[in-house]
Amino acid sequence: MSNIIHLKFLQLDENNFIGAISDEKCLGRALGHFTAFGNHFTSPRNQLTEDKAESFGVYLSLNYIDLSNNNFYGELFEKWGQYHILSHLKISNNNISSAIPPQLSRATQLHRLDLSSNHLSGNIPKEFGMLPLLFKLLLGNNNLSGSTPLELGKLLNLEILDLASNNLNGLIPKQIGSLWKLLSLNSSVNRFVDSIPDEIGKMHILGCLDLSQNMLIGEIPTLLGESKNLETLNLSHNGLFGSIPHTVNDQISLTVADISYNQLEGALPNIKAFTPFEAFRNNKGLCGSCVTHLKPCNAIRKKANRLSVLIIILLIVSTLLFIFAFVIGIYFLFQKLRKRKTKSPGENVEDLFAIWGHGGEMLYQHIIQETDNFSSKQCIGIGGYGDVYKADLPIGRVVTVKKLHSSEGEIWLTLELSKTRCIL
Question: Are the beta carbons of 25 and 48 closer than 8 angstroms?
Fold first, then answer.
């Protein structure tokens, strides 16, 4: 083949070739289309290294390269970015284990880039947003990590985006909604978090959406139910909750759906895509009138309505009881304060008499006892009209007693309590 200097098309697909691909496939530099997928090239000479890049470097006329389904290993060539007319680069299903070189973005004529099913690591280069003609980007089944570059939203001609089965994390960029030509989006089996962007529902020609096996939460966007061309929808194995948008019932194009293993509740869409049990199993509280394994929605609604009515009644009754108790408490408090303000001083002594014996007899006897029959030892003062004594009553009250002098030999006692005087 080294003598074929004008070879433009070389196809070695689906054979059982082994060994190395020759570094001199042809000495001419006219080769434009080279494919060798589906073989068994395993020689160490086929390690994709910078040395191998030198051998490819002479073929700057290449616009189509397909080395898929072989056993190539090593690193991706940085110099492939110098293939300025390269439109298709397919190296899927190999054992390449390097990071993706950002220099690939210099091949600005790329239409299709397929690096899937390798062992690629690192981040997705943000420079891929500089490939304006790219319509198919396949990076699935690798070990890529980090967040999805926002710059992918600039690929306005992109039709197929496959990021499945990696270790990507963070949010699903809302810029994905700018890809108005996108037909298929697969971001399954990653570690994406938070909610599904509403912008995805604006991609009206989207036919396949797979966001399964992530850590997504929140409700299914209402706009997603308005995608009239959606044929396949897989949101399973996430933490989505709430009800399914009623607009999904109008998606007559939807043929395959899987919302299993979430926390969804409410009515299941009454379309064929949700008929299999596997499509909706392991959710929180779905119902459906025409689906087996689910309770009718009417029964659940009646139960929910009864429960709601009971809760409302309990809330109303408890509120009224609280208000009633509060009003009664305020009323008695004001009454008590009012009685204290209006009660005359004399009533204190009358109450004392009422408590401590009829007519004051017990009170008099106790005073005699407490003052030791008006002994001089119990006297606390001497006045012009009588002597003053102090007495502690058993009811916890302290009184002063004045024994008045009488010329006729009678004993008059003056009881002083709270500045009120009473004669016994």
Answer: no
Yes or no: say if 399 and 413 are a contact pair by the CB < 8 Å rule: no
Q: What is the pLDDT of residues 219-263, one digit of tens each?
A: 999 988 888 899 999 999 999 999 999 989 888 899 999 999 999
Q: Nearest-5° angle of CA 383, CA 388, CA 389?
A: 165
| SS3 readout for 53-113 | HHHHCCCCCCCEEECCCCCCEECCCCHHHHCCCCCEEECCCCEECCECCHHHHHCCCCCEE
pLDDT at residue 415, as a whole number: 53
The band of 30, judged by pLDDT with boundaries at 50, 70 and 90, is low
3-state secondary structure the chain: CCCCCCCCEEECCCCCCECCCCCCCCCCCCCCEEECCCCECCCHHHCECHHHHHHHCCCCCCCEEECCCCCCEECCCCHHHHCCCCCEEECCCCEECCECCHHHHHCCCCCEEECCCCCCEECCCHHHHHCCCCCEEECCCCEEEECCCHHHHHCCCCCEEECCCCEEEECCCHHHHHCCCCCEEECCCCEEEECCCHHHHHCCCCCEEECCCCEEEECCCHHHHHCCCCCEEECCCCEEEEECCHHHHHCCCCCEEECCCCEEEEECCCCHHHCCHHHCCCCCEEECCCCCCCCCHHHHHHHHHHHHHHHHHHHHHHHHHHHHHHHHHHHHHHHHHHHHHHCCHHHHHHHHHHHCCHHHHHHHHHHHHHCCCCCHHHEEEECCCEEEEEEECCCCCEEEEEEECCCCCCCEEEEEECCEEEEC
8-state DSSP, 244: P
The rounded distance, in Å, linking the Cα atoms of 131 and 80 is: 14
pLDDT score of 384: 67
Residue 420 confidence (pLDDT): 40
Over residues 18-42, the mean pLDDT reads: 59
CA distance 153 to 90: 22
Token couple for 372: 């030791």
Whole-angstrom distance, CA of residue 121 vs CA of residue 71? 18
The count of other CB atoms within 10 Å of the CB of residue 331 is 10
